[in-house]
Amino acid sequence: MLRLARLGFGDSERAAALLAGGALAELADDSAVVAALGGAADPDLALRTLADLAAAQTEPAALVDALRTDPALRTRLLAVLGTTAALGETLVRHPPLWRELAGAAPLRLPDLRATMLAAVDAAPAPVDALRREYRRLLLLVTARDLTGEDDLAATAASLADLAGAALDAALAVARAAEPDGGAGVRLAVIGMGKCGGRELNYVSDVDVVYVVEPAEGTDESEALRVGTRLAQGLMRACTAPSPEGALWEVDAALRPEGKQGPLVRTLASHAAYYERWAKGWEFQALLKARPVAGDLELGARYVQTVSPLVWRAAAREGFVADVQAMRRRVEQLVPKTEQARQLKLGRGGLRDVEFAVQLLQLVHGRADETLRSGTTLAALAALGHGGYIGREDAAAFDEAYRFLRTLEHRIQLFRLRRTHLVPEREEDLRRIGRSLGMSGDPAAALVDRWRRYALEVRRIHEKLFYRPLLDAVARLSAGEARLTPEAARARLEALGYADPAGALRHLEALTSGLSRRATIQRTLLPVMLGWFAEAAEPDAGLLAFRRVSDALGETHWYLRDLRDEGLTAERMARVLASSRFAADLLLRAPEAVAILGDDAELQPRTRAALVDEVRAAVGRHDDPTAAAAGARAVRRRELFRTAASDVLGLLDRRGVGAALTDVAVATLRGALDASVRFVEGERRGPLPVRFAVVGMGRLGGGEMGYGSDADVLFVHDALPGADERDATDAAYAVANELRRILALPAPDPPLLVDADLRPEGRQGPLVRSLSSYAAYYRRWAVVWERQALLRARPVAGDVELGREFLELVEPLRHPASGITDADVREVRRIKARVEAERLPRGVDRSRHLKLGPGGIADVEWVVQLLQLRHAGRVPGLRTASTRDALAAAVEGGLLAADDAAALGAAWEFAVTVRDAAVLVRGKAGSELPKDLRELRAVAQLALGRDSTAGDLLEEHRRTARRARAVFDRVFFV
């Protein structure tokens, strides 16, 4: 008994008793047979059933002898007896049946259709004969399955073929009941669902649709009546009570109008229904339609008739959403008590795989006939091969589906009952686990593997089934989805591409060939063409997409992300077709495509994080030129992040200004680190000076635009005991090196360091000591220099020195008693001079966003004059932010709310439009574009995707006029 327990018998005492007496006594000492029994999925079940089988034999010795001498029989028979109690009972009920498994030769399946028809032909009880023959053949299929001779796909196909053969035999039984054998009726049985897809379970409803045609000389109405009787007779032959038990339910509910519709229809009636009334789910069901019995020629005509309708179904309005909703409804219908054990309908179940595969087939199969398979595994392989599913996802789906279907088979085999629930009893789980080759604790191992596969299936299902690209592809016509040259040219012209011939060349370059890359591009581009066309520059967007695709080459994640994360593809198309600035950045940092699919990734990074990354990049290089390149690489990526967020409407103007300022500050700090390290290397020692960079203008105000320079002041202070001249020389060396490395030629938008706001302007020293600044400002500071200091903010270098500088200039920029009337007049004089002299030659003043009437300068000069006059007594005005200063002026009673609103609206509009113009044109400038196409592109970015060039010009005139009126009234008061 101990030996039996070690072999896996649960009731070793009973097992010993069965082997000790009766017909099996001779097997007790046969180690090969006993070991084979112990290796069965359920050794106790195998032994008990074997004992019953031996007892049922007229010559049990023949069975015993065969077990001992025929290893193939032993393996097959015990595999069956240890896995399926139902087929064990069949063997006991029909004692000679075990001989079907004997012999060393491979177990072959006969011609199933011919064998089944022969079994019922002239049999006195044809229904019983049908079912006995079905069970005999099912035994052969099961033995091949359990011994590994057939894999899951072959087993499921054999079960479907066996079901088709049984339907044919059942139809023969039904015809035999008709007076003339129903000779006037042609009847085709169309397999649907798993039967049609040749992937049937051991026990499953066999879904069918009946097609009837009258034979020559027969009235159609009579053919329908006889056809109905034949279909009903077929169903009774499969399901009516019998000593041999029923086969399975024959379900015709997938017919037109479902259970409310007529059981049989003519081919023309079917066609009329599907053309006019069928719903989307009915076409999904027809995907697996296949003639399985009866008149196969008529069945082939049926499939030929409905197939074009199937592959047009995805173009129906809301088709994808309807399929997705149906999957959710199916999931919700699972009773709560079954949800945790549901293998078929629940989360991570078989339906997750099947619905995802079928939806992808229906959407992409219109253009790709290789996807038109009714078999899930074959369709999945085609989707993976064609690039519609990633290789890893396709392989994981395939592996999980095979396991789940095999588990379903093992569950159903035990009692040959239709069920999709994973059992709860330990002994059932153990038997199934052992049948799948699991050792140790088979029950626990089985549950663990099932749970892991369910999680993986759900993950992939949600990625594929709810892929945004699907709905967009489904909305294309079949011709558009195929992207043939003719369809592509017509689509390009219809979408408004300026150069359809050039665009077609790009398409051909992207999609030609048989590579996986070209295959995926053929799926993406029909949809992306429409997305490009929704922006102002579709031709430029397509060209940029081609260049980015060429740059990334075979990078494994690039096309996968575009295909699987449809939001990434749509956003990429919109950004590339809207902004030359962003497109150029992406071409130089193509890996940044990865951030487009995630809103969180598109949010600007904090200044601290940027500074740390830039300093780390700079710190890896001793050469300052290489260090600057490292800083520029980070800046390039962050400029793209900001530009993309801006184009996509994920950042407001304050957010854009702050993000661009933070990038500039991080770049300056990294470049300063490299410059200091270089100068220290040249001098062979630490610097004898503290050094700080003070941001001015938009940099200091945190309101930088895409085309803004970095306005700065350089401040230094000699360390205690250091020589002043030596300290000044070191500071000059650092400042010059900083400006040099940031001015090096590069394809990126430059960050020009402009120190023209320093004392005495361009004529003054580039670098001054803190004491020199103090002496100069105390004696010589003029009002424009005090005005410039309103935005002074330390941005890099020695923090304490920066703070000391601010303390030094605070009385100058925010004087307690304001400025004198003479200073006010000087500010007004300088503003008038700027208007007269600073405008570029040949520029229409009314179109200049900065210096034109009601432009950026008008608003900022009003704000800055208020700050100079009143910041000493209104603390809120002590800010570098134009917006905040306007709000403080209203709160302090210095500006009417309506006037502040007009100024703020004009400033916000002008800043937005100027940034939009840089995004569109890829270069800095403050004039409204003269090119109408560019002007429309700017309007779409600044005002909204449906805006026109006229809308932009009208809004500019309106806001500028109101702001100028306020400026004229307030600035000169």
UniProtKB/TrEMBL annotation:
As recorded in Swiss-Prot or TrEMBL, the protein's gene is named glnE
Positions of the UniProt region annotated as Adenylyl removase: 1-469
Q: What InterPro entries does the database record attribute to this sequence?
A: GlnE, GlnE_rpt_dom, NT_sf, PII_UdlTrfase/GS_AdlTrfase
Domain Glutamate-ammonia ligase adenylyltransferase repeated, which positions?
A: 76-301, 570-807
The record lists the organism as Motilibacter peucedani
Q: What is its EC number?
A: 2.7.7.89, 2.7.7.42
Protein name per its UniProtKB record = Bifunctional glutamine synthetase adenylyltransferase/adenylyl-removing enzyme
Q: Name one GO molecular function term.
A: ATP binding
Q: Which family does it belong to?
A: Belongs to the GlnE family.
Query: PANTHER family attached here?
Result: BIFUNCTIONAL GLUTAMINE SYNTHETASE ADENYLYLTRANSFERASE_ADENYLYL-REMOVING ENZYME (PTHR30621:SF0), GLUTAMINE SYNTHETASE ADENYLYLTRANSFERASE (PTHR30621)
Q: Which GO terms describe its biological process?
A: regulation of glutamine family amino acid metabolic process
- Residues annotated as domain PII-uridylyltransferase/Glutamine-synthetase adenylyltransferase: 324-465, 830-971
Required co-factors: Mg(2+)
Where is the signal peptide, in residue numbers?
none
